[in-house]
Amino acid sequence: MEKIAIITDTTADLTTEFIKEHNINVLSFRIIYRDREYKDKVDITSEEVYKNFEIEVPKSSMPALQDMEELYQKLEEEGYTHAIGITLSSGLSGIFNGLKMIAEEHNKIKSFIYDSKLISLGEGAIVEECVRMLENNKSFDEIVNEIPEIRKRIHLFFVVGTLDYLRKGGRIGKIAGTIGKLLNIKPIVSVDENGVYYAYDKVRGRKQSLNRVLEIAKDITKENNCRAYVMHGHAEEETREFFEKIKELPNINNAMYNGCISPVSGVHSGPGLVGLVLLEE
Question: Which domains does the chain have, with CATH numbers?
Answer without folding.
Answer: 4-28+63-152 (3.40.50.10440), 154-280 (3.30.1180.10)
